[in-house]
Amino acid sequence: MAAAINCLFIINKSGGLIFYKDCGSAGRMDTNDSLRLASLWHSMHAISQQLSPVNGCSGIQLLQADTFDLHCFQSLTGTKFFVVSEPGAQHMEPLLKVIYELYTDYVLKNPFYEMEMPIRCELFDINLSQAIQRDRVALLGR
């Protein structure tokens, strides 16, 4: 069976959840749980950067557990994009980069969007859903 993402989080540079999308069939996480998870991930990511013995470490990029994998991409501005996927999911880094490109194209270039605020952009939502669907179709073909 092809691995797929269950949910996507976008966290601003100060650790606030600015976007959450449920993509899986396991049931939607309630708002408080998604806020807690985003805050926890932001803190763990920041701590890992400071504790790493490797100079210039950019933080945790992959967290693997028995029931899920968490893949993270941090932009140069500090915005974090992370997906929770089925265990063993491959090729999540390219998908995260596509999501970042959609974010820059449809959110940051939107004259009505205020930086660091929750994302409410219909074109971003539509294109994000299409990118996730394309990724699922590509996974089924592998």
Question: What is this structure, in a nutshell?
Answer:
This protein is α+β, with helices and mostly antiparallel strands and 142 residues long. It is 41% helix and 20% strand. Strand 4 and strand 5 (80-85) form a beta hairpin.
Helix/strand layout:
Layout: E1 5-11, E2 17-22, H1 31-51, E3 62-64, E4 69-74, E5 80-85, H2 92-108, H3 122-141
Antiparallel strand pairs: 1-2, 1-5, 3-4, 4-5
Index terms:
5 strands, Beta-Lactamase, globular, five-stranded antiparallel β-sheet, 142 residues, alpha+beta, single chain
Q: What fraction of residues sit in β-strands?
A: 15-25%
Shape: globular
Strand adjacency order, main sheet: 2-1-5-4-3
Q: Given this structure, which CATH class is correct?
A: Alpha Beta
The major pleated sheet works out as: 5 strands, antiparallel
By secondary-structure content and strand pairing, the structural class works out as alpha+beta
Q: From N to C, what is the helix and strand string?
A: EEHEEEHH
CATH topology: Beta-Lactamase
Mean residue pLDDT: 87
Number of helices: 3
What does it look like?
It is a single chain. This protein has 142 residues and is of the alpha+beta class. It has a single domain, classed as 2-Layer Sandwich (Beta-Lactamase). 41% of the residues lie in helices and 20% in strands. The protein has a 5-stranded antiparallel sheet. Helix 2 (92-108) runs antiparallel to helix 3 (122-141). The longest helix is centred in the first third of the chain and has 21 residues, at 31-51. The protein is globular, with a radius of gyration of 15 Å. The mean pLDDT is 87.
